[in-house]
Write a structure and sequence with these properties.
Blueprint: H1 2-62, H2 72-109, H3 120-168, H4 181-193, H5 196-199, H6 210-218, H7 221-249
Helix pairs in contact: 4-7
Protein name: Troponin I
Biased composition (Basic residues): 62-75
Keywords: Acetylation, Actin-binding, Methylation
Length: 250
């Protein structure tokens, strides 16, 4: 009975092993087929890209001399291709950054240790190592924080000194003055003071007719002021012309 039972167990174990081997073989074969399919798909994609690139280059060479090469449809296709290319480049850049980040983390933190298989002495050593590393990092952190506070204090002191200096030496804002303003002001003053009508010699002889006398009598005071103003303006204008001519000669 024991021999039959042992034989039955051996047959069952053999059958089970054959099933396992066949399953593993099937899985490996599927993996190989998937890898081959992926490689074939990549090769097809690369071939299609090369074909599209070659076709575009041929079209560009064939119609380079013709006008209106970039039609709206071609512009649209080109924009789509450029967007796809930019998306691929962005994805590659993100993958590269992720790999670089993982590499730096592994360099700084190290690989994960198997604490389950360690004995008590090894665990103590690991704890001491981690404690020393944490202490060193805390010390570096304290030094950096102290340096930051020191620099902030220096910056505040310098800002206070700068504000004090600005308060002591305030530069007044200069007004914009014209080059000919003083000359024109002097000329206007002279023209206002200089009045020909007051300096004219008065003639008492009645050599004019009665009509002219009547006109002089009827002339109001504001008309006389207007005449004096006209004469002063003419004098001022002549002086301005002379000043401009002298400046142009200089």
């Amino acid at each position: 009975i024991h021999g039959d039972l042992l034989f039955t167990l051996c047959i069952s174990a053999r059958w089970w092993l054959e099933e396992v081997y066949s399953s593993v073989y099937t899985l490996l074969r599927l993996q190989v087929l998937l890898n081959m399919a992926d490689e074939q798909r990549k090769a097809e994609i690369d071939a299609k890209k090369a074909e599209v690139r070659r076709r575009l280059e041929e079209q560009s060479r064939a119609k380079k001399s013709k006008k209106g090469f970039m039609t709206p449809q071609r512009k649209k296709k080109l924009r789509v291709l450029l967007r796809k290319k930019a998306a691929e480049e962005l994805k590659k850049e993100q993958e590269r950054k992720a790999q670089e980040r993982r590499r730096i983390i592994e360099e700084r933190c190290g690989k994960a240790k198997d604490f389950d298989s360690c004995n008590e002495e090894e665990l103590r050593n690991h704890c001491k190592t981690f404690h020393g590393r944490i202490s060193g990092l805390e010390g570096d952190k304290f030094d950096l924080e102290y340096e930051c506070r020191k620099r902030e204090w220096k910056i505040k002191e310098l800002n206070i000194q700068v504000n004090d200096l600005r308060g002591k030496f305030i530069k007044p804002s200069l007004k914009k003055v014209s080059k000919y303003e003083n000359k024109f002001a002097k000329l206007q003053k002279k023209a206002a003071e200089f009045n020909f009508r007051n300096n004219l010699k008065q003639v008492k002889k009645k050599e004019f007719t009665m009509e002219e006398e009547d006109k002089d009598k009827e002339k109001p005071e504001f008309a006389k002021k207007m005449d004096a103003k006209k004469e002063a303006d003419e004098i001022l204008l002549s002086h301005k012309k002379e000043a401009a001519a002298s400046d142009a000669q200089q």
